[in-house]
Hints:
Two copies of one chain form a homodimer.
Chain A: H1 6-14, H2 29-38, E1 39-44, E2 49-51, E3 59-65, E4 68-73, E5 79-85, E6 90-91, E7 102-105, E8 109-115, H3 116-125, H4 127-153, H5 156-171, E9 173-174, E10 180-183, H6 188-195, H7 199-211, E11 215-219, E12 222-225, H8 228-235
Helix pairs in contact in A: 1-2, 5-8, 6-7
The structure holds a DNA duplex.
Amino acid sequence: xxxxxxxxxxxxxxxxxxxxxxxxxxxxxxxxxxxxxxxxxxxxxxxxxxxxxxxxxxxxxxxxxxxxxxxxxxxxxxxxxxxxxxxxxxxxxxxxxxxxxxxxxxxxxxxxxxxxxxxxxxxxxxxxxxxxxxxxxxxxxxxxxxxxxxxxxxxxxxxxxxxxxxxxxxxxxxxxxxxxxxxxxxxxxxxxxxxxxxxxxxxxxxxxxxxxxxxxxxxxxxxxxxxxxxxxxxxx
Amino acid sequence: xxxxxxxxxxxxxxxxxxxxxxxxxxxxxxxxxxxxxxxxxxxxxxxxxxxxxxxxxxxxxxxxxxxxxxxxxxxxxxxxxxxxxxxxxxxxxxxxxxxxxxxxxxxxxxxxxxxxxxxxxxxxxxxxxxxxxxxxxxxxxxxxxxxxxxxxxxxxxxxxxxxxxxxxxxxxxxxxxxxxxxxxxxxxxxxxxxxxxxxxxxxxxxxxxxxxxxxxxxxxxxxxxxxxxxxxxxxx
DNA sequence: CGTTCGTTTGAGCCAAGTCAATGTGTGTGG
DNA sequence: CCACACACATTGACTTGGCTCAAACGAACG
Lengths: 236, 236
């Protein structure tokens, strides 16, 4: 694909946009060199599937650019999005045979992939990497558990408010007047699949928030949050 | 409390019931000795609180005996149980300042506690322990994500069926006739708090499953599952 | 034996789901 | 460039699963 010649390989990581945020950040130049040897870059188009629920987990990756979703389906076909993965996040299931979820790119993405086996071997030999991975996994577990509270105990309105706050936090650009604009990487259906709701309910709640003057729906995917404090009050 | 004299401390771990399942299982005798020095045993009565949501996380622990719950409260006071912790499971939030959930013993319990700082220092110096902890955390993350699907996309009936299957799996004793009996460590309210339902709905669903001849309610806390296949069909 | 706490049952209601129609971009081929 | 198709989004009408409120029941315990 876009393999660099062996001599310049070393530079791939050095020039990496997420060099200092990802789990590789603690490694010394020699270690980075080895990692470079077993990893490769890969591009994904929006909508492209990287892993399938229940299939063998052959690879893991670092996300360099783009947003991906982890999702799982109930017996009767309903989808539940289990999490979103952002740049510098780690992706995949090391030390496990099968992937418990499917992975799909929501936007055009750029990732740094490793054969799971290669990565595991490297990780076991480099405790600093495993430590980084552990910290990340613990953080991810906390975030996932917070999402359980949302799914189990919040009303549709509270769910939407919480979702918008999170998106503003992650992807928002603040304006001078205190408002924040978010360009959503998700369709209404996908928002519903995150919040455990239906498309119709998501749509209705958004129009209600608009009617209350809390948000402005600039275009399908673009939402401006005019009064974020109101959202925080609703979310609790 | 029940401190052993320094000379016999070493034996505490050797005699430990979960010696070969917990995260300490890979350590050599010397390492076990150090761990012994920084840990201590502690008993908890059913209902006793070990950690508080949002408070500083001062300790971590291994569960030797008993079952504990992790839970969190929404702004309007509703509780959501985020997970159950069983013997040989690890408990607490290493490498984090505050505990994102409360921890309470559901049954009389016996745990092996460490000051978080001490544990962290030891872990960083002993990669085999960190690796075990990583594997455990990854598994816990998978289990938590599976629960998200339940909370977001299942009906009350499916939730109950899934819950009973999980409990039978974890705590059930199989009879000769193919049935399984479970002694629940949870009240109806707590079951509701796990499944994101109300007590009334839990009660109604249980009576319905009984009416269908799938389960028998021997006593409040004791449930016999007569036809587990039926439950699996319902759960999907 | 009465009190208490957890559980079950009942009646009514409401939030969110379902089903169906309409609206709104966006891209495609004539 | 327009018209058509198609996918996504919104809105409306209706239904319903699970919640709320309230009462009755039952086991455990002083």
